[in-house]
Each structure stands twice: as structure tokens, then as C-alpha cells.
Amino acid sequence: MSTAWQPVRDASGSSRRLTLDDLARRVDGRLEGVSDPEQEIEGVRPLESAAESDLSFVHAGSYLKQAASSRAAAFLIPESLDPTAVAAELGERPRIVVRSSQLAVAQALDEFFVLPRPSPGVHPTAVVGKDCELGEGVAIGPYAVIGDGCHLADGVVVEAHTVVGRDCVVGTDSWLHANCVLYDGSVLGERVRVHSGAIVGGHGFGYASVAGIHHKIPQVGRAVLGDDVEVGCGSAVDRALVDETRIGEGTKIDNQVQVGHNVRTGRGCLLCGQAGIGGTARLGDHVVLAGQVGVVDHAQLGDGVSVAAGSKVLRSVDAGRTLGGAPRVQDIGDWRRASSAVTRLPELLRRVKRLERQLAELSSRSSSESDDRS
Amino acid sequence: MSTAWQPVRDASGSSRRLTLDDLARRVDGRLEGVSDPEQEIEGVRPLESAAESDLSFVHAGSYLKQAASSRAAAFLIPESLDPTAVAAELGERPRIVVRSSQLAVAQALDEFFVLPRPSPGVHPTAVVGKDCELGEGVAIGPYAVIGDGCHLADGVVVEAHTVVGRDCVVGTDSWLHANCVLYDGSVLGERVRVHSGAIVGGHGFGYASVAGIHHKIPQVGRAVLGDDVEVGCGSAVDRALVDETRIGEGTKIDNQVQVGHNVRTGRGCLLCGQAGIGGTARLGDHVVLAGQVGVVDHAQLGDGVSVAAGSKVLRSVDAGRTLGGAPRVQDIGDWRRASSAVTRLPELLRRVKRLERQLAELSSRSSSESDDRS
Amino acid sequence: MSTAWQPVRDASGSSRRLTLDDLARRVDGRLEGVSDPEQEIEGVRPLESAAESDLSFVHAGSYLKQAASSRAAAFLIPESLDPTAVAAELGERPRIVVRSSQLAVAQALDEFFVLPRPSPGVHPTAVVGKDCELGEGVAIGPYAVIGDGCHLADGVVVEAHTVVGRDCVVGTDSWLHANCVLYDGSVLGERVRVHSGAIVGGHGFGYASVAGIHHKIPQVGRAVLGDDVEVGCGSAVDRALVDETRIGEGTKIDNQVQVGHNVRTGRGCLLCGQAGIGGTARLGDHVVLAGQVGVVDHAQLGDGVSVAAGSKVLRSVDAGRTLGGAPRVQDIGDWRRASSAVTRLPELLRRVKRLERQLAELSSRSSSESDDRS
């Protein structure tokens, strides 16, 4: 409230336990090295903190040695790991081989923990405006404020203190955590999650500057978040000048990310912490911006572009490229070489100076020898 | 609530329409290529989405070709564009020639949209402290909390859930959107706008560090925003150690901008998204910081300084310069050349290595020839 | 509310005054150049704004000249300053010599200003959940919302509109300013201060990406802030995937800082404005990240590491180093030389080009001379 996960408990109040066999089925995996498939698992923990009743996980071969010395009862192992290497390190220790160990971790955690959905109903202190439509099972928390003319579909959760402007639409099973704000007219798809402190549909930074005075340009568009979008704590997605700022289906936005007015992103993008996207930029599908990346106004990034942490993208980028750099982005290998070279620049300056001196000497020697001979 | 624009409607509820002739007068422009000045315009849209009844706009000559293929009924054109080029592309298509097309867009949008001001009055759930003075027409929304001893001048709007500390002063027609916070003692001028999630007057990051312990230094000053300042979503302007942090008249602050304690900015600055200004820095008038710019503590930036996106300003800068770079800012042209050169550094290293080898060969050859001759 | 300092007043309502002698005792300092130890001081101000009844301060020798021309009644001077230089500039002007002038400023300000603690009690509009334990002297402000099962120890302050999730623990004398959010299960030590807009325990950015779909990985851990931690306006500390995100005792976090899931920091770190720390990174004790620094996921920074503003740390760093750079951090001196060299790169390119031309000429001349002789 703002809500997070709680352990799953059975009727008697004790934490859930699952057998290895049962867990393997639930994460769609194959048991290996298991002598007792009925062994009970009580939780999921990383290698360094796993107890004897925990399931743990190995995402890459480099962690196998650490796994071998972990106390975990069993491990999730991706099928991409070399079976010989796995057997060499883990011998007869129990493991569940899965297609994606990341996904299996998510599935296993979902067996032991639940994100409790608040009970349906409108808290007596919530203020709901005129002409609102509330679907079935909608839960509105203490002091939430919903403006006139909103439509909240079935299963929507609005936690304490969240403010929804007028004429907003929030799709089925979407969840607004405590203390977030939707400006008037914002539109959210289904299963959207907006975290505390996030703000959707703010005014956008648009001014007509004449003789040093910045006149506000009305930002009369709106912000639209597609299905399955998540917006992190304190992030902001501004409304459009006209038309729509649009975040594509399944795009995930981390904390403190700024998305300017008129931006459009494709599906399944990942925008990591403190990234910033300037006005009217366009991102294709599955674009990844690592932490603190900046994208300049009006830039166009094609599908699948991936930008390394802290880079500044000051121009458009073709699809499929993996880039780094500031202020000139380059292919990531070139960027690594260039930035390594930067650290050697003082030495390079000295070498060039020495070359100049040696060449001058050689040149004057050569001239004088020519003179000698002439 | 948090409020954004609504279409202007006439008494019958239908959206506003204006004739070209009327619109031209309202944006102080001159009609060209217009056969029917009574043609009705229903809205304003950018070139790519304009419908047949929309006014659109061209800010630069490079967009004239796109304008020619747009469906818009008419275009706002800046008088600075070459009339021959305009006529070549737009022939007899209707247009309104104006001094600033940006300003005209703002004016035209203001004809079709309105930012509805909440009705005056104090919502029954708002908490207003002792000894507050509320001017005429003040509107205070649901769950707003106003501390003791505040003065809110005529026409001030405080939206839902906003918290105003004690002894704050908010000038005429200023507008605090939902969920923002003024710490005790903050002072806002007239027509100031503070957006959701913004925080004015926070404590400032001041500690006396002795033997690894950081003792909090009381930050007993305040934050003062001049007339016509706008503060974006999630931005923070800290109070001063003593005295005042001051944001000059007409300065506009985008989202997620951090302004440290004791900072002073001049008039009409533009601080773009995620810019950060370290403590006690001074900015002159009309300084522009692009997105993600950092300015170090105590730096002084003269009037009219402009800093490119992502740059880090680690020293003071004379008035009038346009700069880029991190961590060494340079004049923008030099910076572009230097950053382009960085991408060629690995090649440069190879060239220097080759030079060294060739010079060594030449030098040894030259020596041996000298030896031969001697 | 959000609370800041108020002047200390005596029973008659007038501001506090203290004699120089008294003040010197309270800041544990030694009077010098004082003819009248009974002279009354009314406040503390920096050199440029100090009035004739103010105490001012000099943190470094370079400010002595400015001190000499200030109107201040007396100065706090660190004992590390050369007494001859001090005497040369300040002659017989009154001063208090102290071990740390920063700490003495803090102590002196604490004599004249107080951060008023709200009266104990639960505001009638606050919503407190079931099974909460509230210690003695707890103050809960208007519209605060406390979830079920929370423990707020003695002297805790929760200001207006702050939302505390279920099962949170807040230690003695901790203070949550207006409009901040603790997600479920967060744990705060003693004397922790969380500022407006800050969010503790958010979900963390964890997805299992399979075939372009990002599946949310439950983040079932929690966030734990040690004693004496301060979290600035709008900052976020995410909860852990499993286990704990931990901020060490006495660590101070400025505004708009992002701390990813599973991060652990040591004691007494300083994380300046807009710094970002990627998931699972580890910071030792007394690490300093200047403004806008980024630390990549999983990096390990040893005790006492210090990183210059705007730098990006993309790998682990040994204890004790002072670094700068992006994307390659270097020792700070090397980094300064390298970044200075970057600005000379275009010139360097020209020099190498010239060397290549000269060498080619010399080489061909040398060859032709060899030919001549053969």
C-alpha cells in the first residue's frame, strides 16, 4: 500500500512447501540428479544466501562453481549450459533443467509469493467524480481521487493517494500504486502497472520563445500506455502537443525515466533507470536503453537498437545496432576501443611530439648530408 | 486534477470553429493563397496528422515539401521563410504568414483549447492551517493540506493532494498541480506553475563530515520562484543554507530537474529534462541547459550561455558561449570536431604506431647509409 | 509540513541572541581578536550577505580576503588555516578558531534555528491499519496512511500524505516528510529521514525476457535503511529480488538518486544528486558518488572510492581510488589529462597527417638519393 509480495500461506498459516517433482512440473523443467523427487522446497534464494530447503538458480556457466558450494537443495539450470560442465560441478546434486532460468525463477517465485490484490470496493475516503464508470472488482484505496468522466475497467486497482485526472481510461486489471498521478485524459491499456511517484500525461516542455520570453504552447494531446506497460517509481511520460505520446505494448520503464511529449515507442522496449527521451523521438520495437541514456529530440531509433549505459544518442540510428558513446554513438566494439584509446591519449600526445622531434632531426641530418654530398 | 486542456465548446456543445480570416487576425498574421477567407478551421495539428479542416504549421523550410503533401486546410508560416520557396512548394494553398510560427501555434491552440480553472472554493476535505490568508477566487482541491500562516493570493489554484508547508507565499494566479510539495517558508511569485511530483524548498544536501560521520547542516534559508516560473513533474528546487535559492522570472524548468541549495538563476532560463545544477551555482539570464546537462557546485554561467545535451560543466563559463562536452566543455564546433575525432582514435593509434616503425626503419637505413659512406 | 527550520525565539517572541563567548563554547572553539566577548550575535550568514550582528565562516584560506571586506561581526575559522595568513587578513577582527568550520557552522545554526517536531498524536484524518504498534510521541499528520502490521517506534514523525505500506518497521526518531512512500515490508533504522517524493521499496526492474516478451520477476525481498540514513526528495531505493537492498548506517542520499534492487552500500557513503546505482552493485564504506554518476549493475566499489561528477563506472573498482571518466574511469589525474587531451584531438589529427606527409617525402627523397648513389 504501496503493495509488494507476501508469502503464500496454507490454511493453517504456515508457508507453502512444494516437492521438487511438483516444482519441476510448474516451471516446465526436467529433473536431473534427483534421488528424492518428493523432497520439499520452501523458497527461492540466490546462491549466496540459499538455505538447505531453498531452490536456487544458475543463469550462466560461470556461476556453477559457486553453485557447487551453495547450500541450496536444488538449482534451476538453463538447458543452454553444457551438460558435461554442469555434471562436472554439480555431480549428483538435484537440479531442474529449463529453457529459460530467468523465466523459471519468475515462475518459482510466483509459487511461493503473491502480490495481494486489495479487496474490491471504494474506500470511504476516496473521492470519485461525476460520470465515472467503474468495472467489476475495482479497488480504490484511501484518499484516492478520481476525476469526472473516468472509465476504470474490471479489476483495476487504484492505491492510496493516487490522483486520476478527468476523462481518463484505465484498462482491465491495471494497477496504480500509491501516490501516482494521471493528468486529465490519459489512456492506459490492460494490465498496466504504474508505480508510486510516477506521472503520466504531464504538460510537456513546449514554449514559443520570442524576445527572451517563453510563451507556453498548450499541450492538448494525451499520453497513451499500451497493454502490459509498466512505469517505475518517479518516472514521467508527458502528454503530446497534439495527438498522442504512445508507449507500445509490453514496454517496461524503470525508475526516474523521462519520456518527452510526442514520443512513440514500439512494443517490448526496456527503458532503464534515469534514461531520458527527448520530444518527438521515435523508438522501434524491442529497443533497449540502458541506465542514464539520453536520446535527443526527434531522433529515430529502429527496431532492436540497444544503447549502452550513459550514452547520448544525438542522431537517428538504424535498426538492429548495438551502440555506445557520448556524444557520438558508435557500434559497441568501436566504442569500447575508442574509449580505451581515450585513456591512452596523454601518452599518444607524447609519442607524436617525439615523432615530430625525431623526424625534424632526421630531416635536417638528411638535408645536411645532401649538402655534404653536393 | 492534474489538469490539462479541454476543447473549447460553444453553447450547443459542439467544438469551436473559426474562419481563416478570423484566425489570421487572432495570430496577428497575413493571409496568402487564400481563395475563401471564410473557410472554417476546426483544430490545429502537425503536418502528418492534420485533417482537411485543420490548421497546420511549418517552422522551417525543410518541412515545406511535407506541407505540400499534407491534407491540412492551411499552414502557419514564419515570415523568415523565403517567399519564393514557399510559393514553389505551396502554390495557391492557403497560409497565414506570421512573425513567429511557434508563437502563432500557441495562440491558435489557445483558441481551440482551454485549461479549465477549477471553481473557486475550498474542498471540504482540504485542511487549511491557522492564520492563513486566502485571496479571491482561490481554489483548493480534495485533500490538499495548507500549513499555518500561508498567504495564497487571488486566483491561486492548489490541486488535489498538494501539500503546502507553513509560512509559504503563493502569488496571484499561481497554480500547483496535484501531488506537489512546498516545504515550509517557500515563496512563489505570480503565475507560477508547479507540476505533479515537484518539490520546492527541500533540505539541500549539506553535511559537515568529520571522521566519516556526516553531520547535517541546518538549511535555514528558503526557495524563491520568480513570476512566471514553471517547474516540471518530479523536479526539485532545494532551499538555501541561509538566504535564498532563487529561480529568476520567466525561467522554465522541465521534468526531473535538480536545483541544488543556494543556486540562483537569472530570467528566462530554460532547464531541460534531467538537468542538474550543483549547490551555489549561478546562472545568468537566458541560460539554456539541454537535457541531462550537469553543472558543478559553485560554477558561474554568464548570460546567454547555452549547453548541449548531456554535457557536464565543471567550471565557470563566460557569457554568450555555446558549449558542449564532458568533462571538458568547449565551444560547440570544437566539441563536435573533438568528439568526431574520438571515434577515429583507434585508427589514429595505428597510424602513429606505423609512423614510429617507418621512422625507425628510415632512421636506421639513414644511419647505415651514413656508415656506408663514412 | 513538509517541515523546515524556524528561528529560535525566546519567551517574549524575539529572536535568539548569543554572546561571542557563549557561542565559542557551544562550537567548542577558541576566541581570537575579540575585544568584547559579550558582543551579541543574532545569526549566521555567508560572507557576502552577513550583517554587522552575524557570525560568518571561512572554510579555506582563499576566502580570507573576502572575509576581511565582509560586514560580519565574527568568523568561524578552521584551525588548519595558517595563523599568520589569518592574522594578516583579519588583524584584530573577532574570530572563533575551531577544528572543523563546517561542523561549527552546523552547530552555530542549531543554536539559532530549530526543526520543529510536530506535536505527538494521530491526525483525525490519518488512516492507521490493523495490528500497528505506535511508540511514544509518534506524530502522524493529515491524510497519512499506515498499512496493517506496522511498527513505528518512539518519536517517529509521519508527515501529511505519506503512505507507509503494510508490515513496515520505522525506528526511533525517524522522520518521513510529506508525500513519501514506503512499499510493503520496508525497514528503517533509527533517526532515518526520508524526504518528500522519495520512495523506498519499489518493485525493482526485473524481467525474464523470452521471445521479446518481458515477464515480471516477483521482487519478494525488501529495502532496509540503516540508522541515520537520509534519503532526498524524489529518490528511490528499490526492494531486493529476494533478501535485502541495504543502505548502510549514516549514508546520505541526495535528491533524485536511483538505487537498484539488491544494491548494498556501506556506512557513511554520500550519493549526490541524480546518481544512479544499477542492480546488485556493492559499495563499501565511505564511498562518494558525485552528481549524475552512474554505477553499472553488479559492480563492486571498495571502501573509500570517490567518483567525479558525471562519470560512469562500468566495472569494479579497488578501495581507496579517486576516479573520473565515462565510459572508462581512470585515476582522477589521468582522467583530467585525458579529457584535456580530447579537446586537442583535432589538432593532433592534423599533426599526425603532417608527420605522415613529411615522412613520405623524406622516405622518397632518401630512396631517390640511394638510387642516385647506386
Q: What does the model show?
A:
The structure is a homotrimer of 374-residue chains. Chain A is α/β, with parallel strands linked by helices. Chain A has 2 domains: 6-114, Udp-n-acetylmuramoylalanyl-d-glutamate--2,6- Diaminopimelate Ligase, Chain: A, domain 1; 121-334, Hexapeptide repeat proteins (UDP N-Acetylglucosamine Acyltransferase, domain 1). In chain A, the strands form 8 sheets. Chain A has a 12-stranded mixed β-sheet, covered by helices on one side. In chain A, strands 11-14-17-20-23-28-31-34-37-40 form a 10-stranded parallel β-sheet, with no helix packed on it. In chain A, strands 12-15-18-21-26-29 form a 6-stranded parallel β-sheet, with no helix packed on it. In chain A, a hairpin with a 2-residue loop joins strand 24 and strand 25. Chain A is flat. Chains in contact: A-B, A-C, B-C. Chains A and C meet through strand 5, helix 4, helix 5 and helix 6 of A and strand 17, strand 20, strand 23, strand 24 and strand 25 of C.
Please state roughly what percent of the residues of chain A sit in beta strands, choosing from under 5%, 5-15%, 15-25%, 25-35%, 35-45% or over 45%.
25-35%
Beta-strand segment tally of chain A: 42
Give the spatial strand order of the biggest sheet of chain A: 10-13-16-19-22-27-30-33-36-39-41-42
Oligomer status: homotrimer
What is the level-2 CATH architecture name of the largest domain in chain A?
A: 3 Solenoid
Tell me the domain tally of chain A.
Answer: 2
- Which pair has the most extensive contact? A-C, 78 and 78 residues
